[in-house]
User: Fold this.
Amino acid sequence: MRSVVAPDLPRIPVKGGGTFQVHRIYCVGRNFADHAREMGATVAASAAERGHPVFFLKPSDAVVIDGVVPYPPGTRELHHEVELVVALGRDAPPGEVTAAVAQSLVFGFAVGLDLTRRDLQAAAKAKGLPWDTGKAFDHSAPISEIVPGAGIDIRALSLSLTVNGERRQHGALSDLIWDVEDILGELSQLYALRAGDLVFMGTPAGVGPLQVGDTFFAALDGVVELHGRIAPVPR
Assistant:
């Protein structure tokens, strides 16, 4: 009898020591009103009208921890989206996760990029088709080290991204349409949340292209940073 040995699950360094083994990567779409508008989406006028968040997933092995991102195949429009990343440290109990329980699930925070093959996403959207190929591809989730979350007031912080030294994106996390507790509560109604899950929380306005040779610097307001570059397509 023959056996198949799968690659080990990715592990992300934790500030202060240790690693975080990735289980799943959940992503939130349209979680900043300014980005929703720049993508042509209608934005609710009040919290009561916001409905439900948009979710999609990336494979766990899409994470990049050394900052080197090969330009992906099949696209001419690789776009950056800087995001807060929430790392879960324990399994959620059965049933809907309340705000208090959601807070207890959080192990820490990171800053990451939800890289997007925008042309493939746009083509799929135009046909009313799923846009997994635009989001869920190899090396599409570069991420910083994870900072344990005790004592961090996320809503008092902001995100920023510079490319080749020029600021492209900046957003206050107080402007999230759905905050961390909201998102974990919504996800818990659809999935069994587990220790090792990552949640990319959505991006502010200013998304744009990345080219081979570009360098990027993402920051979560002095808490953690991500440095990287876009490398040539592997031969």
